[in-house]
Amino acid sequence: MSEQIPHWLDKQAELNPDRLAVETYMGEQISFRDLRKRSRGMARALIDEGVKPGDHVAFLSDNTPYFPIFIHAISYIGAVAVLLNTRLTAPEIAFQLKDAHISHFYIGKGYEGIADKSAVGLEMKVKAIEELPILNELDYPLRRELPFEEVYTMMYTSGTTGHPKAVMHTYGNHWYSAIASALNLGINSNDKWLICLPLFHVGGFSVLMKNVIYGMSTHLLEKFDAPLVHDAIIAKGVTHVSVVTVMLQRLLRLLDGETYPKGFRCMLLGGGPVPERLLQETSKRNIPVFQTYGMTETSSQIATLGPDYAFSKIGSAGKALSLAELRIDSHKRGEVGEILVRGPMVSKGYFNRKEEDGIYLRTGDLGYEDEDGFLYVVDRVKDIIISGGENVYPAEVESVLSEMPGVRETGIAGRHDEVWGEVPVAFLVTEAGVTVEDVRTFCNKRLAKFKNPAEIHFVDALPRNASNKLLRRKLFHLLDGETSE
């Protein structure tokens, strides 16, 4: 029999009924007692709509208070929440609705048009989440326990090649991910985690799970907005924020030489290696940066590097969290190979796809461990550029270029070359005055010749996904009308 726990929102409403569960930048505040009441009321409305245990229910919404209400409502029924990326086109959404076997489709305000186009020809109703009544009747069979082995959410991978796949997360996956993070970062009664990553993404969603498992307050933003994040840390008691490098760079510009309040405990930084120059700046201002590695399949972070090792292990993502295991598919320590992971936070697989054989999950990422067992993520397997028989890792070149004064953002992608097979191409967002010659001089001093960009393009912005991670496959779409050599 599967391990079960009392429903986590019931438990928080019992233990911390008046504690703030969710607040928004607009000033709305929801306690754990009220979150439970509204979630159970929505669950009753969903049941009246025909949602049953085991149904796959799609949700397309921005970051609003309806998001946590909805996902807890789904858990009270025992259905599965399929969380859709708000940046997708109608054909992309239509594929996921079919692929995930969706029975019901709920949307947030502003998505009526694209949702109707996506659902054409499918036997499902599209309904606005704001139109669902919050019912008060008590004679509904709502769940009291949560089975760890049961699938709770599905989120699609980004689909860099071929069609995306729906990652199945169980209640246990989310539980153990939150517990592993707590064992690493600790928990204080005054913790408040700011959410600016999209909630349909595992980085944002994982904070909602920490919220209900820890009884921790959250500060919810619709999206990343540097001034709003800055204000929340300075004036609204935020103690934790999850960001990627480009977000942190924008926040530092707003600090203007100052630092954050002493109560600020964690800047959880994902999305790849961090420039040393950025680490030096955060250290100078006493900002606790925790560099981390994770993915949708691991329910968020699975390895983390604390501030104490920021300079002795520059470029490292740290070591596997206490409940996780990690190894490199290579012949010896220090050699680059595919990163393999396992643990109770690792997804049970992909919906409607053949199960992978083996104990470990093959991440598709390349990395190595140093002599002390610290992980260094080199790149995605599919992003490697093979130039003249030599492997060029875009993340390594990006890391070097990000150290150059005047360079704000960097992206490296490979293009076909008749002589070398492939060559690296650089796309840079820079301050005024940076020239192609400056970049070439900088690279020549720090990179082997085969790693030097064959072309350098200056662009206004780099393509990023909803969580601000770089989309290297879209870099060449930027070439029209840009300054380059």
From TrEMBL:
It catalyses: 2-succinylbenzoate + ATP + CoA = 2-succinylbenzoyl-CoA + AMP + diphosphate. It comes from the Bacteria. GO terms for biological process: fatty acid metabolic process; menaquinone biosynthetic process. Gene3D superfamilies: 3.30.300.30, N-terminal domain of ligase-like. Residues 9-351 form the AMP-dependent synthetase/ligase domain. It holds the Pfam family AMP-binding. Its EC number is 6.2.1.26. Residues 396-469 form the AMP-binding enzyme C-terminal domain. Pathway: Quinol/quinone metabolism; 1,4-dihydroxy-2-naphthoate biosynthesis; 1,4-dihydroxy-2-naphthoate from chorismate: step 5/7; Quinol/quinone metabolism; menaquinone biosynthesis. GO terms for molecular function: ATP binding; medium-chain fatty acid-CoA ligase activity; o-succinylbenzoate-CoA ligase activity. NCBIfam families: menE, PRK03640.1. Converts 2-succinylbenzoate (OSB) to 2-succinylbenzoyl-CoA (OSB-CoA). Belongs to the ATP-dependent AMP-binding enzyme family. MenE subfamily. This is 2-succinylbenzoate--CoA ligase.
